[in-house]
Every structure is written in structure tokens, then in C-alpha cells.
Design brief:
By secondary structure, the chain is of the alpha+beta class. The chain contains 20 helices and 33 strands. Strand 2 (49-55) and strand 3 (59-65) form a beta hairpin. Bound molecules: guanosine-5'-triphosphate (GTP) and magnesium ion.
């Protein structure tokens, strides 16, 4: 199966125990994510559950349902790391509760900025109470910096509000950036099990890159080499899993124990596990205490939890709400990449207290009070001018002018212009004809999506040669700037991956090939309008007569030049139109003017045909309006004897 042309997103639930996360996922998807016996018996979620949701607007979502119980926050973290958006569930009868706060804290630390708040169980409360709760939930979100999240009332019991939740989710994900498929594969394993006939299967969200059957991958930590036997997305075999998809991978010759939750599937020779990571830390504003030097913590990254200590490099403590540079020293190695977000929980009681970003994922041992070390970390953090310019540009999906990028990167003067020039020279950034800069990665991603959209539309509409530029552009995003779109299509045309006729684009080199069944339909339609001569049946009449939707066939015949689209309601065969033109030529040999009645009488047609036909002939230059009558148009003038 080819990858479909829609986008992928991972949606994670969040919220206090019993507030209705699993019930809402069931209402939205039809899937019961509580699959463990114990979950069913106790009526609570213990581990992660997974479902699939197709949202309006063509977004295919992997849903990760997390448990709300305080004791299972560890499992929640394994699911939350790597979500694109949150579905924060708050029961209308209880309002904001401790794990509502902790889950939102965690998602905040992980940098999740999209989401919808579902106010569940509205069937259990009075109208007035609902208003009060809505108000206080909105206040809470506002104070936490999530004031732009829609709050949607819903009942998983009656189904009320289901559509509104779906619409709100589609809105929250509408402008989601595609994850980089061009980078090396990286998948945090959140489940591993044995499947009869396939051996060991692991699941996780593919953070970046692609995975295909036959790929060689490495499991880290442990450095176990393996080969992909099979790839599934949402329960279907695929030729390729793409970044952003929930993925199940069957691995050859590997025991289940070799890939427990917390390990990673990686493209070979990419990341290495390491125990010392330089980081920037941020302590939660309502953490119960300050973070102390050498404090023991639980380090959560991807689906892994690793114990370690925090070595603070700037002072002895970080107060709630504060931040600083630190080194995390772990008891077991972690597989981190530069820029990864992670969460820290206190050792006991286990509670989310801080989070941060990896700066140097495999660092030398740092000592406190070393000005040089701090300087090095700061330099790593901000990067070279080129890195900073590229990072700033990478945050701008529509690209931007050089001045704007430089400002966002905190660069000026020669430093900025040199960084820009080097990136363009090196092919990492591209300057469009209108001056806009954009990363090559973004351009490549757009090209790829454009091809997918074209492919999908071609498959869905086999009678159409291709897709109009306008339709392709709107499919790629209503706000996509014209210059960017032009560049994408120009690149595809130059690479020979797409062809163009008038303003219609077609993917690939093959010509249209109709199935015998479709060809028979087209031939049937062609015969009917041919037989109708200058008074062919309308599409509606044809449809009744033939019993299928004839519009595509008529457009197809028009595209092939075998029919002429006089109006959307009148398609005439090419032969019939040629006969009309021949009749006109003869007519104008003896007459100066043509009246509507002449046309009707001469060709034997009613007003229903003569009016649109004459307008078509005007447009095509065969006739020209002159007062109430027609005279020969420019295409007949050479022949006219008048
Ligand atoms: N009346 C009513 N009951 C609901 C609604 N949503 C959930 N419930 C009930 O509330 C209870 C808890 O729902 P769950 O969906 O399991 O809650 P949860 O948030 O997944 O709980 P954990 O996963 O354990 O954190 C169940 O008995 C549900 O049937 C609702 O909208 N209306
Ligand atoms: Mg649940």
C-alpha cells in the first residue's frame, strides 16, 4: 500500500483519573483502549492504550490514551513524549484536579502547544453548574498559558458534543508541521510483544525518518542489530511507515526481552547511548520545592525512565519557576539527541518537578564552578550563526525575508548575511525569486506532499488527467504563499516527477490507463452524445439513462478532444460541433447575418440548445454579436464572402 496523502498526527489524552478519557476515546474512535484484564476489572486505565482516528480535513491521528491514576504517571509519560497535541479531559462534575495539573505540567514541559479541552460528563450536571465549571476551567487554562485551547462540552454517555470535539481537534491540528521524514529513523519503543509467525513486534511513534521492510536498524541501549521483517500502521501492512505515524515493526531474530519499553529503534550509526547529558532545565512554577544540586531524579525521555542526579552548573539550587544549565548524570545510559525535550520527576514521592532540553547529549563530565565548561555549553546551546539562522528559519513554515530570520535568530550585520550566504551555498536553504528564504527540508517536505496529493487524486479520479494547480495549492494549505507553491511545482516539473498541461498537473510519466470497465462507460457516454448530434442528451438525462455518474466521463472526453463542453449542462461531440461550423460557413456564403431563429431552423434545435450554443460559438470566435443578430467571427471572416 502506498502511503496515503493525508497528514499524520499523534494525539495524547491527559487528565485526572476517572474523568472519562477512555470513554471519550471510545466515543470518538469506537476503540476500547482498556485492553488489560485488570483494567477491565478495576475500571481504570493502567497502561497506555492506542486507537486510530480520522479527523475532518484528512488528518490521520494515532491516539494514545493514558492512565490518570497518580501511580501510573510513569506510563503516562511514556505516551506523552512525542505527541503533537493533547486532548485534556476534565470531568464537568469535578473540575480541575491534581492529575489535571500534573498532566498539563508535563505536556507543557514537553513543549506541546496544540490541544483541545473536553469537558466530559455534562449529562451528570445542571446547566448552571456547567457554566460555572466552564468559567473556572477557562480561568485555569488562561493562567497556565493555554488560554487559546477550545473548551468543548461533551458526554460520552449520550454522545452529545462528539462532532464539536472532532471539529475542534481538526482545527487544533490544521497547521501542524510535518515531521522530518528525511532524517534518520528514530522510534521510542513503548510496547514489545510476540506474534505467532512474526516473532518480536515493537510499537511506538516514529519520531523522524521512515521504516520499511528490509531496513537494518539498531536497538539501543544494547547495540543489538536487527532487520525489519514487516511494518504496520493502524493495523495495516505498509511499504513504509513515515515520521509521525504510530508504527508496529516486526523484527527478525530478536528476543522480546532485547527491546523492552524505553529502548529505541534507530537507523545504524546515528545516536549512541550516553550517561552524561548537558541540559537546560526549567523548574515548574508550582513545584513543591526548589531543585537542589545533586538531587536524585527520574529522567523521562521518549518511553524511558532512568534514575540519575542533577549536577547544577549555575548555583546551588533552581527555585520554582526558575531555570539554569545543568548536567544530568544517569545510572543507565539514555539515547538523547540535541534538542530533545525531557521531564524530571522527584525520586520520592514521584512527581513531575522540572523539564528541559538536551544541549549536548554525550557530554564530558562537568565540574561546577568551571567558567570554561559553562561557556562551552552556552556556545553549544546557541550554536554557530549558521545553526541559529537555520533554526530560526526552520520555525517559519512559510519562510521569511532575510531580515526577519536574522532578527529571530538574534543575528545582525555581516554575521547574519554570511550565515545566510553559507546556508544557501551549502544547499540547506533556498532563496525564492521574491526573496523569501525557506529551508530545503521544508521544500522537500512540500514536494513530497504535493506528489502524494496528486497521486491520491489521480487514483480517486481515474478519468481526469490530473489536478488543477489551484486545487493542489488549497490541498497543501490555504495559507501557503504563492512563491513557495510556485517553487515546489517548478522543482517537481524540472525533476520530471510531474507534468503539466494548461494549468493541470499530473504525477509520474505514465499516461492515463483506464480499466476495461471505465473505458466501457466512457465509450457508452461517447456513443450517446454522438448519437444525439447537435441536440445531445443533458448530463442529467444521460445519468438517468445509463445509471452512473457521467460527469467524469464527459470531462474525460472533453479532455481527449472528443467532446466539447458548451456549458456544464451541455456536452456535444466533436463531430457535431464540426458540423455546426460547416453549416455556419455555408450559411454565411448566402447571408450577412444570422438570427437565433435561423440557427434553430437550420439545425433543428430548440432554444434550450441554440442559446448556449450561440454563446459558445461567440466565445470561440466563429460568430460575433452585432445588435440582435450574429455576423461571422474572426475565425470565419477569411471565408465569408460578404
Ligand atoms: N455519565 C457519564 N459517565 C461517564 C462519562 N464519561 C465517562 N463516564 C464514566 O466514568 C467512569 C470513568 O471513565 P473512564 O473513561 O474509564 O475514565 P478515565 O479518565 O479513562 O480513567 P483512567 O484512565 O483510570 O484515568 C466510567 O464509569 C465511565 O462510564 C460521561 O460523559 N457521562
Ligand atoms: Mg482510562
Amino acid at each position: 500500500m502506498e502511503p496515503a496523502a493525508h497528514r499524520f498526527a499523534i494525539l495524547g489524552t491527559a487528565g485526572h483519573i476517572d474523568h472519562g478519557k477512555t470513554a471519550l476515546v471510545r466515543l470518538l474512535t469506537g476503540t476500547d483502549t482498556d485492553r488489560l484484564k485488570e483494567e477491565k476489572a478495576r475500571g481504570i486505565s493502567i497502561d497506555l492504550g492506542f486507537a486510530h482516528l480520522d479527523l475532518p480535513g484528512g488528518i490521520s491521528c494515532g491516539v494514545v490514551d493514558v492512565p490518570g491514576h497518580e501511580r501510573f504517571v510513569k506510563n503516562m509519560l511514556a505516551g506523552a513524549c512525542g505527541v503533537d497535541a493533547m486532548l485534556l479531559v476534565i470531568a464537568a462534575d469535578e473540575g480541575v484536579m491534581p492529575q489535571t495539573r500534573e498532566h498539563l505540567d508535563i505536556l507543557d514541559l514537553l513543549g506541546v502547544k496544540r490541544g483541545v479541552v473536553a469537558l466530559t460528563k455534562i449529562d451528570m450536571v445542571e446547566e448552571e453548574w456547567l457554566e460555572l465549571v466552564t468559567e473556572s476551567v477557562k480561568e485555569y487554562l488562561d493562567a497556565r498559558g493555554f488560554g487559546d485551547f477550545p473548551v468543548v462540552p461533551v458526554s460520552s454517555k449520550t454522545g452529545e458534543g462528539r462532532e464539536a470535539v472532532l471539529t475542534a481537534l481538526a482545527g487544533a491540528l490544521a497547521e501542524l508541521e510535518e515531521r522530518p521524514a528525511s532524517r534518520a529513523a528514530r522510534l521510542p519503543v513503548d510496547r514489545a510483544f510476540t506474534v505467532e509467525g512474526f516473532g518480536t513486534v515493537v510499537t511506538g511513534t516514529l519520531w523522524q525518518g521512515t521504516i520499511r521492510p528490509g531496513d537494518r536498524l539498531v536497538v539501543e541501549p544494547g547495540h543489538v542489530e536487527t532487520r525489519v521483517r514487516n511494518v504496520e500502521v493502524h493495523g495495516e501492512h505498509v511499504a513504509e511507515a513515515r515520521a509521525g505515524q504510530r508504527t508496529a515493526v516486526a523484527l527478525a531474530g530478536l528476543a522480546r526481552d532485547a527491546v523492552p519499553r524505553g529502548t529505541w529503534l534507530l537507523a545504524p550509526d546515528t545516536l549512541r547511548p550516553a550517561s552524561m547529558i548537558d541540559v537546560r532545565l526549567r523548574v515548574l512554577r508550582d513545584a513543591p520545592k526548589e531543585l537542589r544540586h545533586r538531587q536524585r531524579v527520574r529522567f523521562h525521555l521518549g518511553a524511558s525512565e532512568i534514575l540519575g542526579r542533577v549536577v547544577l552548573l549555575e548555583g546551588d539550587r533552581i527555585e520554582p519557576g526558575g531555570e539554569g544549565l545543568a548536567q544530568i548524570r544517569l545510572e543507565e545510559p539514555a539515547v538523547a539527541d540535541r534538542g530533545d525535550r525531557f521531564v524530571l520527576r522527584s525520586y520520592s514521592p514521584a512527581r513531575a518537578i522540572a523539564g528541559g532540553t538536551a544541549i549536548l547529549p554525550d557530554a564530558p563530565k562537568r565540574r561546577r564552578g568551571h567558567g570554561k565548561a559553562l561557556e562551552e555549553i552556552r556556545r553549544e546551546e546557541s550554536g554557530s550563526p549558521e545553526d541559529r539562522f537555520l533554526a530560526a528559519l526552520g520555525e517559519m513554515p512559510h519562510g521569511a525575508g532575510a531580515a526577519e530570520v536574522a532578527r529571530a535568530a538574534g543575528l545582525a550585520g555581516a554575521e547574519a548575511s554570511e550565515a545566510e550566504a553559507r546556508l544557501i551555498e551549502g544547499g540547506t536553504a533556498v532563496r525564492l525569486p521574491d526573496g523569501t528564504l525557506v529551508t530545503s527540508e521544508r521544500l522537500a517536505g512540500l514536494s513530497r506532499r504535493a506528489e502524494e496529493v496528486l497521486e491520491e487524486l489521480q487514483r480517486a479520479n481515474p478519468l481526469r488527467w490530473g489536478t488543477s494547480r489551484g486545487e493542489l495549492k488549497s490541498r497543501l494549505g490555504a495559507k501557503l504563499p504563492a512563491a513557495l507553491f510556485e517553487q515546489v511545482t517548478a522543482d517537481l516539473l524540472a525533476a520530471g516527477r510531474v507534468r503539466q498541461r494548461e494549468d493541470v498537473l499530473r504525477r509520474g510519466r505514465e499516461e492515463m490507463a483506464l480499466s476495461p470497465e471505465l473505458q466501457a462507460r466512457v465509450d457508452g457516454v461517447a456513443r450517446e452524445i454522438e448519437a444525439g448530434g447537435v441536440t445531445p442528451p443533458t448530463p442529467k438525462e444521460l445519468q438517468t439513462r445509463l445509471g452512473f455518474n457521467v460527469l467524469d466521463a464527459l470531462e474525460h472526453l472533453t479532455f481527449r478532444g472528443e467532446a466539447v463542453k458548451v456549458t456544464p449542462e451541455l456536452f456535444m461531440s466533436r463531430g457535431a460541433v464540426q458540423r455546426v461550423v460547416a453549416w455556419l460557413e455555408t450559411f454565411f456564403q448566402d447571408h450577412r447575418e444570422l438570427s437565433m431563429a435561423d440557427l434553430r431552423g437550420g439545425l433543428g434545435m430548440s432554444r434550450k440548445y441554440s442559446v448556449p450554443l450561440l454563446e459558445h460559438l461567440d466565445r470561440q470566435g466563429w460568430t460575433r454579436r452585432s445588435g440582435d443578430v450574429r455576423i461571422p467571427g474572426r475565425r470565419l471572416e477569411g471565408d465569408s464572402r460578404s
